[in-house]
Design a protein that fits this description.
two-stranded antiparallel ribbon; alpha/beta
């Protein structure tokens, strides 16, 4: 039997839109106190509220270790601008950025931009994959030591270490190079939510490009099957065994405390199906048992948890569930490094142009 991989935990810090940074800073700091790998902030063109990426850029200087992963929609947006914004978040957070890749499929969202009609999911996720591809190329278009900053000679950049990407996609082209130096992590962490389908268009993009994948399953055996299927697709693209990391996604409602298993709840304590995927309702202790059971079975690498009530449930998660997992030596008590990739055990990618001797 293979060794159990480290447990990874992440949480959503969104809720009703707030136009003050304080609630987001408070929740991110709370998650950081629990040594969670990262927090996410959902966003879409269909909801009112501040831009998630901009909000987390504000949260970054108010935190020290926690990873910051906003939802970034690749539809109707310019790939060059997306890559620049995510790279900037990695710089202002000193290497703690990721991006949760999403698409926009509705006619109402398309009308906000007026550039093109809504498209089928397959087309949108192929485009999202191309955006992920060109973003990685743009991040690599500056070699790590491209900046000279020599005031005596007036040279800021070694132009031999900047590279054109010359990317041609199905709906866009990007020449490059980037306008932001290579991010501290090389590539910020890419996250994709595939739901409960390991063969659909979301999963096809995730298998090629994602570092971490969110799945939705009610039972550990369902999660294990999704994980195996996804990693088989990833292996077909030449990716390493055990890639990508897989996190089971739940909404958690910790408001009622511990109670007996209710009729009709199957597979794990207090989990039901809901509009946003599996929904856990119970107390912090039973949630710790659920997490430990799924993880030690090898079904998933960790969990992404969305509090039903952000402040209450995240506090109970950190002070109850996480503290218990730490007491049982199932989850770390401190962040192992300074970057999100280090938290997740992911290597810093080599620069594809430097290693290949690309031309500028």
């Amino acid at each position: 039997m293979s060794a159990i991989r480290p447990l990874h935990l992440a949480a959503e810090i969104g809720g009703p839109p707030a136009f003050d940074a304080a609630p987001y800073v408070e929740l991110a700091r709370l998650a950081e106190r629990g040594a969670l790998d990262f927090v996410t902030l959902r966003d879409s063109f269909a909801r009112p509220g501040p831009d998630a990426l901009a909000v987390l850029a504000r949260v970054a200087p108010a935190t020290e270790r926690i990873g910051l992963v906003p939802v970034v929609t690749t539809t109707h947006t310019e790939p060059f601008h997306v890559s620049s914004a995510v790279a900037t978040l990695d710089w202002v957070s000193r290497g703690r950025a990721g991006w949760w890749v999403e698409v926009s499929a509705t006619a109402a969202e398309a009308r906000l931009f007026g550039r093109r009609p809504p498209a089928p999911a397959g087309e949108l996720w192929r485009e999202a994959g191309e955006v992920a591809d060109v973003a990685a190329r743009l991040w690599d278009s500056w070699e790590d030591d491209a900046e000279i900053r020599d005031a005596s000679t007036g040279r800021f950049i070694d132009r031999d270490k900047l590279h054109y990407v010359d990317f041609q996609g199905t709906g866009f082209s990007v020449r490059g190079p980037a306008i932001v130096p290579r991010p501290p992590q090389g590539h910020p962490v890419t996250v994709v939510d595939i739901g409960g389908d390991a063969d659909g268009p979301r999963a096809r993009t995730a298998a090629r490009h994602a570092d971490a994948v969110l799945i939705r399953a009610r039972r550990p055996e369902e999660a294990a099957a999704l994980t195996a299927r996804l990693r088989a697709h990833a292996a077909a693209h030449g990716r390493a065994p055990g890639t990508p990391l897989v996190l089971a996604a739940f909404t958690i409602d910790l408001g009622d405390g511990e109670h007996p298993l209710e009729n009709g709840l199957v597979g794990a304590p207090h989990t039901t199906a809901g509009a946003g995927g599996p929904h856990y309702r119970g107390g912090p202790v039973d949630l710790a048992e659920l997490i430990a059971g799924w993880h030690t079975s090898g079904a998933v690498d960790g969990f992404h948890l969305t509090p039903a009530e952000p402040r209450r449930d995240l506090e109970r998660l950190v002070n109850g569930t996480v503290a218990l997992l730490q007491h049982r030596s199932l989850f770390r008590t401190f962040h192992p490094g300074g970057t999100l990739r280090e938290h997740l055990g992911l290597a810093r990618p080599a620069n594809q142009y430097a290693s290949a001797g690309g031309t500028s």
